[in-house]
Structures are given as C-alpha cells and as structure tokens.
Amino acid sequence: MSALLQPETRAFQPAARIGSIGVSEILKITAKAGALKRAGRPMIILGAGEPDFDTPDNVKEAAIRAIRAGATKYTALDGTPELKEAVRRKFERENGLRFAQDEVTCGAGAKQILYNAFMATLSAGDEVVIPTPYWTSYSDIVAIAGGKPVLVPCGPENGFRLRPEQLEAAVTPRTRWLLLNSPSNPSGAAYDADQLKALADVVRRHAQVWVMSDDMYEHILYDGLAFATFAGVAPDLADRTLTVNGVSKAYAMTGWRIGYGGGPADLIKAMAVVQSQATSCPSSVSQAAAVEALDGPQGVVAERRDAFRRRRDLVVAGLNAVPGIDCPVPQGAFYTFASCAGLLGSRTPDGRVIATDRDFTDYLLEADVAVVPGSCFGLEPFFRISYATSETELSTALARIAGACERLHRD
Fold first, then answer.
1. Given this model, what pLDDT does residue 271 score?
2. Looking at the predicted structure, is the pLDDT value of residue 69 above 60?
3. What is the pLDDT of residue 3?
4. Integer Cα distance of 398 and 407 in angstroms
5. Which of these, 345, 342, 353, lies nearest to 319 by C-alpha position?
6. What's the rounded Cα separation, in Å, for the pair 212 and 232?
7. Do residues 346 and 325 make contact, with C-beta atoms less than 8 angstroms apart?
8. What is the pLDDT of residues 338-354, one digit of tens each?
9. Which residues contact 297 (CB under 8 A, 6 or more apart)?
10. Residues 6 or more apart from 113 whose CB is under 8 A from it?
11. Helix (H) or strand (E) holding 196
C-alpha cells in the first residue's frame, strides 16, 4: 500500500477529564517501596491506610455461610434489603440518624459512594469546598465529575480544622458541596459537636450548599473524645447532607469493598443511576459479611482502637524526639501528620539539599522507610505516617528516621 494511503497513527490520548489526573501518589510510593522490598531491601512501608489486623472471625464466617447458601448472585442495585436494614440500625444506634430504606445506598467501598454523589450532582464548574490537608482522591473525583475543587488550607494553628470564617470566605454562588472528613485522613483531626455547629451556621446562610460528611474513621477516636457527625448536630440540614461510612477501617475489611451512605431519597436515587452504569451491585458475599460486621459483637472495635492509640503515642513521642520534626497529637484515625519544616535547607551526606517535604520523604526511602509527603495531601512541608502496623516495625522505623535525620547537616 502506498505511504499516502496508510492510515494515520496517533499516540494514545486520554480523555480531557482525566488528562491531568494520575494514579494515587500514595499507591505509587507504596508500589516503589514494595519493589525495593522484593529486591531484598529491609523496607518498612508506612504509607498505606490499611489496618494490619485481620477481618474478625464472625464476619468471615458470615461470608462463608452466604457462599454455602448460594448467595452469590446479583443483588438489588445499591444494596440488599438486609444490608440496608443493618445500615439503618447502625445510623440510628450510633449516630441518632433515622433513614428510610430508600434513603440508604451501598456500594463497592466508601470511595464509590463519594464518586456516585459527585457524578450525580456536579455540573461543569460547580465548586466543592475541601479543607486541606485532604485525602488525595477527593479533589480528583471532583475534577473527573466536572467540578472545581476549592482547597482551603487548614494548618496546625487550628488543629487542621476548617474555621467558620474560612468556610464563609470560600463559598460562592457556584458552591455545591462542603466535604468534611472527621476524624481526618491524613491529619487525624476531628471536629467536636460545637465546631460542627459553627460550620452549620454558615451552611444555613447558603441554601445552595450541601454537606458530604465522610465518617470512615468514626470508631478510631482517642482520649475520650465523643464522635459527632454533621447531620446529628444539624438535623435541620439533613435534607442537604450525605453521611458516608463503611466497614473498611473499623472492621479491617478493606478488601471486601463495602461502603454506605445515608441522605435524601432524591439524592440516593440519582446516585443509583450512576452506580447502575458503573458497577451495578456490590459483591453479594461482601454484603452478607458487612451485615454481620454492623450487627454483630462490637468489642473488637474498641480493642483495636486501644492498640492504635498505643501506636499513636509511640510514633508521636518518637517523632517529637527528633530535632527538626514537630508532630501534633492526632485525635483519631491511624495517621500522624508531622512537620519537617525544621529540616528544610539541610543537606544529605552526599550533598543534596532537602528543599521540600518530598525531598525529605525520598531521603527517608533511602533509609528504608516509606512515608508520604504532605504535598500529596495539599499541605507542605509535612509527611504522613500510617501507624497501622506492629509496634516492633514502628520502633524500627522511628530509629531509622532518627538516624537519617542525625546524618543531615547544614552549611
């Protein structure tokens, strides 16, 4: 065939909506560290947000019973009636929230609940206010849905929490959602009832603003702090609030992929449309397991929270003993979000300057410790440690971090 008749070939071009979005930086760091570990390095990976505990036995047994009973077919689109009833009982029992069954949705993880909600409600240019630091997927999902993330820096001076005056300044006529995460990934910050009520006062003044409350770390809260959720402290705003949760963290069920949400029926119906064209129903077996997690014995949740608290105290003390690192005490979740500002400008033994938090975390990787730079979460110069691993590994990692920092020097 003549060259003139050859079909034109082009390099692959992604859709514009994902052109500037990549795979999670956390996953990239974890993958790189994992490759080094497989190559023989004694790597300690403190990047992933996944409990090291196993799924409770009663939950696993419920899944086995479901398999043996033949519960392996498609289910209702956004959750079996049994799971929705378990979610309804959970919301009422633990949060004082009452939902009808058509006000509850279940999906393949809480991430899908968030994705469904944004896809179902955002038009091009609609804005979502996101307090920063934030879980990395929030802004990307908003962007994929055609929205505009409005990132509001919330530093350690206010405990990494959004203040009412910051929210007021961020709201515009295009604001569609305020996204709250308490306790927070990555900072571990939590809002108490009074702090949420102050934000609710702002929301009341702006009828176009809805609130998405990501409560995934609800059960991992320390020092006697009582959990509060937005719809619970502002019931008059329930008709524009979506409360999101899941079984991944509290019950160590990350791989089972079950999340759920409660909100106005019209919103839930619109979210079901999105899910119907994406995944359809979540796994039938996982749904049966989630019913047992929510309805079954809850003692394991408190036991594991106590273990996380001990690990938190170990990591906070270890980091604060390192000159140049300042680590606030997180109120919940299983992360520390420490500042490395005091180390910026120093040089590594081979002369490289630590100019950013990413430089610092790259340097720690050379010391066989993988952590995540704060820039991934929208706030510098910090780094996140996930302490969802054994105290032995955490102690070793802290010793390596301290040793690496001792080897830094200033001109």
1. 98
2. yes
3. 54
4. 14
5. 342
6. 13
7. no
8. 999 999 999 999 999 99
9. 58
10. 105, 107, 242, 244, 246, 259, 260, 261, 271
11. helix 193-204
Distance CA 101, CA 351 (A): 62
Tokens for 101, please give them.
Answer: 């069954």
Q: Is the pLDDT of residue 98 over 60?
A: yes
Residue 84 has which token pair? 């929705």
**What's the DSSP call for residue 76?**
-
Q: Identify which of 131, 196, 139 has the alpha carbon closest to the alpha carbon of residue 160.
A: 131
Distance CA 334, CA 109 (A): 19
Q: Which residues contact 50 (CB under 8 A, 6 or more apart)?
A: 254, 386, 388
Find the DSSP H helices in 91-147: 110-121, 137-144
Which residues contact residue 315 at a Cβ distance below 8 angstroms, ignoring those fewer than 6 apart? 327, 336, 385, 387, 394, 398
The helix/strand/coil state of 366 is helix
Question: Bridge-partner residues for 332, per DSSP?
Answer: 221
């010391």: which residue's tokens?
367
Q: Which domains does the chain have, with CATH numbers?
A: 20-49+300-406 (3.90.1150.10), 73-295 (3.40.640.10)
CA distances to 52, 106, 313, 315 from 321, in Å: 26, 44, 12, 10
What's the length of the chain? Answer: 411
Taking the chain, what is the end-to-end CA distance rounded to the nearest angstrom? 66
Nearest Cα to 66, choosing from 257, 287, 279? 287
How are the residues of the chain apportioned to helix, strand and coil, as percentages rounded to the nearest 5?
A: 45, 15, 40
DSSP code of residue 263? -
What one-letter code names the amino acid at 322?
V
Task: Specify the residue for token string 């006697």.
Answer: 224
What mean pLDDT is reported for the chain? 96
Tell me the whole-structure pTM to 2 decimals: 0.95
Instruction: Record the tokens describing residue 195, joined without a space.
Output: 């702090």
- pLDDT at position 10 is 78
Name the region of 378 (left: φ>0; alpha: ψ -120 to 50; beta: rest): left
Exposure string for 102-129, b = 16+ CB within 10 A, e = fewer: ebbbbbbbbbbbbbbbbbbbbeeebbbb
